[in-house]
Amino acid sequence: MNGDTAAQTPTGTDLTARGGVGGPALADRPSPALPGQRDPAGEGAPGADAAVGSAPGADGSIPVPPPAPVPPPPRPAWLRGLARFGYAPAPAATLAERLVPPMPDGPGVTPKRVPPSPLLLRLGLALPEPLWSWLCRWAGWLGPLAVTLFAGLLRFTDLGSPDAIIFDETYYAKDAYALWHGGYEISWPDGANEQIMGGGPVPYRSNPSYVVHPPVGKWIIGAGEQLFGMNPFGWRFAVALLGTLSVLMVARIARRLFRSTLLGCVAGLLLAVDGLHFVMSRSALLDLVVMFWILAAFGFLLLDRDRTRARIAARLTALGDGGPDAGLAHRLNLGWRPYRIAAGVCVGLTCATKWSGLYVAAAFGLLTVLWDAGSRRLAGADRPYRWTLVRDAVPAFVSVVVVSVAVYLTSWWGWFASSTTPNQGGYGRDWAVGRSTDYPWIPEGLRALWHYHSTVYDFHTHLSDPHTYQSNPWSWLVLGRPVSFFYESPKQGTAGCTVNECAREVLGIGTPLLWWTGVIALVYCLWRWAARRDWRAGAVLCGLAAGYLPWFAYQQRTIFLFYAVCFVPFLVLAVTMLLGALIGPAGSSRDRRIIGGAAAGLVVLLIMWNFLFFHPLYTGETIPMDDWRRRMWFNTWI
């Protein structure tokens, strides 16, 4: 189900003109009474020839005059004030449209024949009608795919540079190789990095190694090594692929979230040119993999939300007049929900890459339950949270938590399958062999894994060794202390240096103008969520909070800015929502839209320029030292 068909839009009506990001959201609130609405009992709707003062009927009764139209409630003062700036409120929507606003384009939504674009005609570009209609119908895929192609070209170009093991690649590239060749991580001999980079045989051995992260991210990194060899391109390939695919996902997610193909493409473009996402896509570290599974889980939950609400709308239409029905809203069984189970699988894969996924499981589990409560309230339930707890909480727990636990345990299959002979299997695999326990019914493998995890938890919570590039999460959003993944100072005549002194660096830092705009966008989203009850802003904030706020509980721990890549897609979605408000809803005046669109376009262009300006620092390009210094805007960046 991709959201482009009329089956997901019960009315088949295009609501693009009913508002944009800045307009009133089709929120989960009961629709106001509409003038002339038919009485539920089928009465009070006299014929067109009935009028006040009509003659008595055959039985001597006097016809009851039709009720006077109910005037619409007065608009709030703030809404009247916005009208001076070209704002027009969205027309009232039916309950079905409020449950599932139609997508802006796609098969079943876009007509088979689309009139030519006046803008293209003015530019002298007249495409054949079949081609133009096909492009309009499939714009929801063609636009995001074009942005993804752009992101892929950026990420895969010269992916093997720097031709070195940079930063924590020294752990994960080798652990990945060991997993694919033995099923568990090993301890490597001294000088292993030099042997690997020298192109000689990989010094693999069977001695187990103590590692503190689950295996899924390393299995993924190792897939690239299996395809392209034990070299920088090989161990970066799979991560670059996930980074590229995440651009496609965020474009499609933004399109579904904001019901705008344009904003979807903007979101994809912004993620493509974020510096931290770009650097992490070109490094064999685990955090980009964590981000990918978080984003995938969010996308599946969004699909589940639309699918479930479409089913509710269909039931209301099939069993009544399509309006709210308290009885149906209370007893409604939301049925089989494959997308939510898929979200649980992705949450499990997140946890099986890094334990920070545990917070994502809690946040997304709560999010899907609140979405169900909103759906039942809109359908007419008078106590939506009570009925959601009764009917939806347990299935949600099973789909997100139980499924993710099963996926997590399965991810350790290589460790479980290894030998229990000391020093011949995964680290700690032999711990429970012959050891007495109060729980003999628990298999030895699970007891050994539990003990292993307890030591890993102790490691994570007490990791406080100082590091040059560690940072406090308070400084992340403003990019207070980036991380240098790689640095060299080549002299003239070496590594492409043409002046007395040069610099080569891979700096893990976001595109500054994008992140600083993101701070403003987060304030806007907080306002939209708290004051306007906009569920879209709440969803974006939930995803960002799941990846960001938990780190404040570990401020004494050694942590780094690049952990923030996990919530970069949600920061991009927040900026996209702000840009959509800047453009204005489709009902706004032409001048308002032109000015707002020009301002939003200028912001995007400045962010792209900023990315290009810092591009040499993202790729390890050799540049004169003076050029490097011009990019060190703050002392804390050095």
TrEMBL record:
<feature type="transmembrane region" description="Helical">
    <location>
        <begin position="261"/>
        <end position="279"/>
    </location>
</feature>
<dbReference type="Pfam" id="PF02366">
    <property type="entry name" value="PMT"/>
</dbReference>
<feature type="transmembrane region" description="Helical">
    <location>
        <begin position="560"/>
        <end position="582"/>
    </location>
</feature>
<dbReference type="InterPro" id="IPR032421">
    <property type="entry name" value="PMT_4TMC"/>
</dbReference>
<comment type="pathway">
    <text>Protein modification; protein glycosylation.</text>
</comment>
<feature type="transmembrane region" description="Helical">
    <location>
        <begin position="285"/>
        <end position="303"/>
    </location>
</feature>
<keyword id="KW-0812">Transmembrane</keyword>
<protein>
    <recommendedName>
        <fullName>Polyprenol-phosphate-mannose--protein mannosyltransferase</fullName>
        <ecNumber>2.4.1.-</ecNumber>
    </recommendedName>
</protein>
<feature type="region of interest" description="Disordered">
    <location>
        <begin position="1"/>
        <end position="75"/>
    </location>
</feature>
<keyword id="KW-0472">Membrane</keyword>
<keyword id="KW-1133">Transmembrane helix</keyword>
<feature type="transmembrane region" description="Helical">
    <location>
        <begin position="537"/>
        <end position="554"/>
    </location>
</feature>
<dbReference type="Pfam" id="PF16192">
    <property type="entry name" value="PMT_4TMC"/>
</dbReference>
<keyword id="KW-1003">Cell membrane</keyword>
<feature type="transmembrane region" description="Helical">
    <location>
        <begin position="594"/>
        <end position="618"/>
    </location>
</feature>
<feature type="transmembrane region" description="Helical">
    <location>
        <begin position="233"/>
        <end position="254"/>
    </location>
</feature>
<dbReference type="InterPro" id="IPR027005">
    <property type="entry name" value="PMT-like"/>
</dbReference>
<feature type="compositionally biased region" description="Pro residues">
    <location>
        <begin position="63"/>
        <end position="75"/>
    </location>
</feature>
<feature type="transmembrane region" description="Helical">
    <location>
        <begin position="513"/>
        <end position="530"/>
    </location>
</feature>
<feature type="domain" description="ArnT-like N-terminal">
    <location>
        <begin position="146"/>
        <end position="373"/>
    </location>
</feature>
<dbReference type="InterPro" id="IPR003342">
    <property type="entry name" value="ArnT-like_N"/>
</dbReference>
<keyword id="KW-0808">Transferase</keyword>
<comment type="function">
    <text>Protein O-mannosyltransferase that catalyzes the transfer of a single mannose residue from a polyprenol phospho-mannosyl lipidic donor to the hydroxyl group of selected serine and threonine residues in acceptor proteins.</text>
</comment>
<feature type="compositionally biased region" description="Polar residues">
    <location>
        <begin position="1"/>
        <end position="14"/>
    </location>
</feature>
<feature type="transmembrane region" description="Helical">
    <location>
        <begin position="393"/>
        <end position="415"/>
    </location>
</feature>
<keyword id="KW-0328">Glycosyltransferase</keyword>
<feature type="compositionally biased region" description="Low complexity">
    <location>
        <begin position="42"/>
        <end position="53"/>
    </location>
</feature>
<comment type="similarity">
    <text>Belongs to the glycosyltransferase 39 family.</text>
</comment>
<feature type="domain" description="Protein O-mannosyl-transferase C-terminal four TM">
    <location>
        <begin position="447"/>
        <end position="637"/>
    </location>
</feature>
